[in-house]
Amino acid sequence: MERNKLEAILKENGYPEFMYDSVINKINKFNTELTLLFEAWVETKQSSQITKGGYSFEKLVTDFGMNPIGAFLTLDWLIREPDIAIKELKKGIK
């Protein structure tokens, strides 16, 4: 996905400009499955049907109050470091 499109999405979701590089780098490292789901969300803005480590996209948005991009970043963390991510999520988001 082109950088300018990602920047527009980040802006729509309230991310400050100084965070763009960091967040875009993380998005660009998503695995294939998550990339496809993220791209589908960008096009439709519909909830993604993915669950990792017992945490679904919908749960992260609804129960944890994350914005959709934060939910995708958290799902990526659950894929990359499941034990650490689950432990931290059980403590709650600060």
Task: Tell me what the structure shows.
This protein is mainly alpha-helical. The chain has one domain. The chain has helices at residues 3-12, 20-28, 32-44, 57-62, 68-80, 82-91, and strands spanning 51-52, 55-56. Helix 5 (68-80) crosses helix 6. The protein starts with a helix and ends with a helix. The mean pLDDT is 94.
Which term fits the overall shape?
globular
Find the count of extended strands (DSSP E, 2+ residues): 2
Distance between the termini: 30 Å
Instruction: Give the overall pLDDT as a whole number.
Output: 94
The strand line-up of the biggest sheet is 1-2
Unreliable segments (pLDDT under 50, ≥5 consecutive)?
none
Structural class category: mainly alpha
Rounded radius of gyration (Å):
13 Å
Secondary-structure element order, N to C: HHHEEHHH
Strand residues, percent: under 5%
Helix segment count? 6
The biggest beta sheet is recorded as:
2 strands, antiparallel
Fraction in helix? 55-70%
Count of domain modules: 1
Task: Compile the SSE list and pairings.
Layout: H1 3-12, H2 20-28, H3 32-44, E1 51-52, E2 55-56, H4 57-62, H5 68-80, H6 82-91
Antiparallel strand pairs: 1-2
Short description:
With 94 residues, the protein is mostly helical.
Describe the structure using short key phrases:
two-stranded antiparallel sheet, about 65% helix, globular, single chain, mainly alpha, about 90 residues
